[in-house]
Specification:
The structure is a single chain. By secondary structure, the chain is of the alpha+beta class. It has five domains: 138 residues, Beta-Lactamase; 113 residues, Beta-Lactamase, CATH 3.30.450.20; 113 residues, Beta-Lactamase (2-Layer Sandwich), CATH 3.30.450.20; 85 residues, Orthogonal Bundle (Helix Hairpins); 149 residues, Heat Shock Protein 90, CATH 3.30.565.10. Helix content is 41%, strand content 26%. Helix 15 packs antiparallel against helix 16, helix 16 packs across helix 19 and helix 18 packs antiparallel against helix 19. The protein is flat and about 105 Å long.
């Protein structure tokens, strides 16, 4: 910056040639340029900027052109905010601020927030006059943003901790946190307190809080986990607990895990005891194992096939419904592989689901076809899971098969009906397109013959006959327009809209449309207000299609706005989207009809009786075209107060 300062022709700046500068100003400039800290001098009445290398980073894209320019021109976007600091300085007051926020021009040309710690203080010469303002400044945006992120992260962590605490507190499984070698209770959720009879246990060692477990080996297990750092998993472990105060202990069965808690340095700080009271499940399993007939009754009562199989897939139990479906007694089915009844095309998927269940421990679900008693196949939904020992080894497979043949047939029928409906819709559109083409030929013939007669080919034509022939031509043109609308709608319905997308200037598009409707405006004695908004941007659209949409919308406004009414066009750009809104003071549309007017062959209110109303395809076609171009056509309206139709199209990137 010292080299740059020497290269500036200061006589062309408000400060004038350097030889006219005061000694104080020269000393201040030399001190600033030699300082490594970001500093700027705002010199003279014009507050002309002189700054060092460090301050160049503060200026960003304004550097180096800021050198020698008035400060209000360099920092024009924040000048209304900082101007007061120089007035304070003139009154012998220094301004100092930490982490002050400004809306500043960034390197990419956009406004953005930036934070600075800075001071502004006057520098006076020997006579006491202010020759410059000293402005050390450093940007603290990064630090402020980091602090904000840290605050947000801290709040998020605290919320997460509270949420986890609440979840654990209400979890159906019991959970307790034990701290230190004494295994002192730090936390216990509702399920754990319910398990131990709602005793006061927090801040007490396990041995004191639950004295009945001292001789049952659980203290030794806790000591082992705490000393080794290896978790302990117990399945259906019996434990005697005093569930009611003063009553003898009751035996319960629990599945639980003792999981060590480690600190930041890797040392063991405590243990999490987590598990479930499985007393009911153990009791039920004992009853089932002791009474096979009850188990059989239960399985036979389930309205699905129930089976179990060995680890190699051989059936070792089937219920009555399975016997009935396969047409064989259980004795004939047991020992056979379940895969032998599955359709060969479905075997690969079924095998893959079983393998995944085996490796992950998760249940499986798969649809396949099963061969029945008569050799026919029916679709079934099979669900299964692996029964495992306390060591995690697979003991057998347990599963059910549910007949879903009717559901599959219904699904296929629904698909067939959907395809038929789609084909019918396509056939309808094709028919409309074909009929529209066929109707054009006689219409063109009518117009041609009417022109020949008007030209006198068949003899003299009176004024009255000319008028009648022109009425024929107008009716032919109106009908031709209706046929064209049907053809356009049919093309849209079959997805055959052809687009020639290119850059379309909004201003030229609007001028071409307004030129076309000028005669109708004059004929209907309507007022077109000046176009509102900025039209200096470019759309990506098919120009003819965009013009057609606007003409349709303006035709509606002309048609339904009484004499003397107003039509206003507003243009806005919202990010990547351009909006052209056409507002009228016409009859409006009832709220319940707003979406219906975009349906084919639907018109609102008295339009159905209008002699030039068409068949109700204009808005339907317009929305089709807008959406085909990547935009949309929407409406807002109040009945009796007019309507606003808005065309949305993408803006050139």
């Amino acid at each position: 910056m010292a080299r740059r300062c020497r290269g500036v022709d200061w006589s062309r700046t408000p400060l004038g040639p350097t030889e006219d500068w005061s000694v104080t100003l020269r000393i201040a400039v030399r001190m600033v340029l030699e300082s490594p800290f970001p500093i700027a001098l705002w010199c003279g009445p014009s507050l002309t900027l002189i700054y060092n290398d460090g301050y160049g980073a503060v200026l960003g894209s304004k550097h180096p052109s800021a050198l020698g320019r008035p400060g209000h021109a360099v920092w024009k976007e924040i000048w209304p905010t900082i101007e007061v600091m120089f007035r304070r300085g003139a009154a012998a007051r220094t301004t100092y601020a930490e982490n002050a926020c400004f809306e500043m021009d960034r390197a990419d040309g956009t406004l953005g927030e930036a934070w600075f710690t800075y001071a502004v203080s006057p520098i006076r010469d020997e006579s006491g006059d202010i020759v410059a303002f000293l402005n050390p400044a450093t940007e603290t945006t990064s630090r402020v943003m980091v602090e904000r992120e840290l605050d947000r992260a801290r709040e998020t962590a605290e919320r997460a901790e509270r949420r986890i605490h609440d979840v654990f507190a209400q979890a159906p499984a019991f959970l307790a946190v034990l701290r230190g070698p004494e295994h002192r209770f730090e936390f216990a959720n509702e399920a754990y307190r319910r398990l131990v009879g709602h005793r006061t246990i927090i801040d007490q060692p396990v041995a004191d809080a639950l004295p009945e477990v001292r001789e049952q080996g659980f203290i030794d297990l806790l000591d082992q986990v705490y000393s080794t750092g290896s978790p302990f998993v117990g399945r259906a472990i019996p434990v005697m607990l005093e569930r009611l105060h003063g009553e003898p202990p009751q035996q319960v069965y629990v599945d639980f895990v003792y999981q060590p808690l480690t600190g930041a340095d890797g040392s063991i700080e405590g243990i999490v005891a987590h598990g479930s009271d499985v007393t009911d499940a153990v009791t039920a399993r004992t009853v089932i194992e002791e009474n096979a007939s009850q188990y059989r009754f239960l399985a036979d009562s389930i309205p699905v096939q129930v089976w179990t199989a060995t680890t190699d897939g051989l059936l070792d139990y089937v219920n009555l419904r399975a016997e009935t479906y396969f047409g064989a007694p259980a004795s004939a089915l047991i020992g056979t592989g379940w895969q032998s009844y599955v359709h060969r095309e479905d075997l690969e998927l079924a095998g893959a689901r079983c393998a995944h269940s085996l490796s992950t421990g998760a249940p499986y679900e798969v649809e396949f076809r099963l061969r029945g008693a008569e050799g026919e196949y029916r679709w079934h939904l099979a669900r299964g899971t692996a029964q495992r020992s306390t060591d995690g080894d697979v003991l057998r497979w347990f599963g059910t098969n549910t007949d879903i043949e009717e559901a599959k047939r219904n699904e296929a029928e629904l698909q067939r009906l959907t395809m038929e409906a789609t084909e019918a819709n396509r056939a309808k559109s094709d028919f409309l397109a074909a009929m529209s083409h066929e109707l054009r030929t006689p219409l063109n013939a009518i117009g041609g013959y009417a022109q020949l007669i008007e030209m006198g080919v068949r003899g003299p034509v009176t004024d009255a006959m000319v008028e009648d022939l022109r009425k024929i031509q107008r009716s032919k043109e109106h009908l031709n327009t209706l046929v064209g609308g049907v053809l356009a709608f049919a093309k849209g319905g079959t997805g055959r809209i052809e687009l020639q997308t290119r850059n379309v200037g909004v201003d030229s598009l609007l001028r071409s449309v307004l030129d076309m409707i000028a005669p109708q405006l004059a004929e209907r004695e309507l007022i077109l207000d000046p176009v509102e908004g900025n039209r200096d941007f470019v759309l990506r659209a098919d120009e003819d299609k965009a013009r057609q949409v606007l003409l349709n919308v303006l035709a509606n406004a002309l048609k339904f706005t009484p004499t003397g009414g107003h039509i206003t066009i507003t243009v806005t750009r919202v990010g990547p989207v351009g909006l052209i809104a056409v507002r009228d003071t016409g009859i409006g549309v009832a709220s319940e009809q707003l979406e219906a007017i975009f349906e084919p062959f639907v018109q609102a209110g008295s339009a159905l009786q209008s002699r030039d109303s068409g068949v109700g395809l204009g808005l339907a076609i317009s929305r089709q075209l807008a959406r085909a171009m990547g935009g949309d056509l929407t409406v807002e309206s109040v009945q009796g107060s007019g309507s606003t139709f808005t065309l949305e199209l993408p803006v050139r990137a």
